[in-house]
Design a protein that fits this description.
Elements: H1 3-10, E1 15-17, H2 24-33, E2 40-42, H3 46-60, E3 65-69, H4 73-84, E4 94-98, H5 109-124, E5 128-132, H6 138-147, H7 149-153, E6 158-162, H8 183-194, E7 198-201, H9 205-217, E8 224-226, H10 234-244, E9 250-255, H11 256-261, H12 264-272, E10 277-283, E11 286-287, E12 293-294, H13 302-309, E13 313-317, H14 320-332, E14 337-342, H15 358-370
Parallel strand pairs: 1-2, 1-3, 3-4, 4-6, 5-6, 7-8, 7-9, 9-10, 10-14, 13-14
Antiparallel strand pairs: 11-12
Helix pairs in contact: 1-6, 3-4, 8-9, 8-14, 10-12, 12-13
């Protein structure tokens, strides 16, 4: 289905959500036609956008559209059940959910469990589900919306669960910023200076690039934990390791979108102050792994936030010289440190994926930690 036909049928004045590659047609259309403003907000996480949508409904009485990948439903469960539910405030919404890990469709391991549960989970949350596939027509959407009128009147929500390649759009936006450092060269520099220290890498392309750097250099993967799911929790995983392996240096390679998703983790890290923890935030001001839509990190001062959370050292780097200097300083220092690295949007077209399974990564990594 052409995305414009779907949006014409929805006829909404307001959209908010978290980008998803499965919803790339929707995301690009929104950026071209609404950009970011009073009619469209890219949220920090899925609970955030659900609550923003609730506020919109309270202010206008109009039904908002909330978009997300199905992996983010978990973040939205609390506001769905304790805020928008008909048993609480009864605030209706239209969810557009990208269906990763759809049963019978090959996908990455982190999406399998969520994909199997998606429809049932939404229904258990009291949300009516309608699946959009390549055969869905505008008339099907009209019929579903008409039949859901009474549902909305009772303060209930409807979710359109979108299968792979179901939405189409001629718009192709190339997202970019003004920075020149490439994420892959940043990560390679980190591996050089960290040497045989522990690295915990965030969800998305950062972990894939780290894996390929090790392959290219003939280095062991045992030093690295590749966080393939649970976006935004990489730094918390690293904290758990750092507190229980105080004699090892722990390097956390994070991203701006992931940091934003669960920003409170930095306050917990700052409170515990592990002196063996280096938190590196690669900031390309984008949700690159799902298409490149912008985050709000362009208007944030991440080092200042880190210092406010209790980190003892925080700096920013835009050049390779600045990066090396900051990494070497953090390597030698015995304090909780953060380094923000401003980098460009983009990755190699031929970037692959790890050939090891998550459990193999776990076993090799745990064996290394026990040595």
């Amino acid at each position: 289905m052409d995305i414009q036909m779907l949006l014409q049928k929805l006829n909404s004045d307001f959209y908010t959500g978290v980008p998803d590659s499965q919803l790339r047609a929707l995301c690009d259309w929104l950026m071209k036609n609404k950009n970011i403003g009073s009619e469209h907000i890219i949220a920090a996480n899925e609970g955030n956008c659900t609550a923003i949508a609730a506020g919109y409904y309270l202010a206008t009485g109009k039904i908002p559209v909330i978009y997300m990948q199905n992996s983010g439903i978990g973040n939205a469960v609390n506001p769905i059940l304790s805020l928008t539910s008909e048993k609480v405030y009864g605030i209706p919404g239209i969810f557009i959910v990208g269906w990763r890990g759809e049963p019978g469709v090959l996908d990455e391991p982190q999406h399998i469990a969520q994909g199997e549960l998606t429809v049932r989970l939404l229904e258990d949350l009291g949300i009516k589900v309608s699946v959009i596939d390549s055969e869905t027509s505008p008339d099907d959407i009209s019929r579903e919306l008409e039949e859901s009128g009474e549902w909305f009147a009772k303060g209930r929500s409807l979710a359109f669960v979108v299968k792979k390649n179901a939405l189409k759009n001629d718009i192709k936006i190339q997202y970019k910023n003004s920075y020149t450092l490439l994420r892959e060269e940043v990560i390679e520099c980190i591996t050089e200076i960290s040497d045989q220290d522990v690295i915990v890498a965030t969800t998305g392309k950062a972990g894939r690039e780290l894996y390929e750097i090790r392959e290219r250099k003939g280095q062991s993967h045992k030093y690295d934990f590749l966080t393939v799911g649970s976006m935004g929790h990489c730094s918390s995983i690293a904290l758990g390791i750092a507190l229980n392996k105080p004699d090892r240096k722990i390097w956390c390679i994070d991203g701006d979108g992931a940091v934003l998703m669960h920003l409170g983790a930095m306050a917990v890290i700052g409170n515990r102050k592990p002196n063996n923890f280096v938190h590196i935030v690669i900031n390309n001001e984008a949700h690159e792994s799902v298409g490149g839509m912008p985050t709000v990190a362009a208007t944030m001062n991440i080092p200042q936030i880190a210092l406010g959370c209790g980190y003892e050292s925080a700096a920013s780097a835009e050049t390779m010289e600045e990066l090396r200097q900051q990494l070497q300083h953090a390597k030698a220092a015995g304090v909780l440190s953060l380094i923000e690295v401003k980098c460009a949007v983009g990755a190699r077209a031929d970037l692959g994926r790890p050939k090891t399974t998550p459990k193999e990564n776990r076993d090799n990594f745990m064996k290394f930690l026990s040595e």
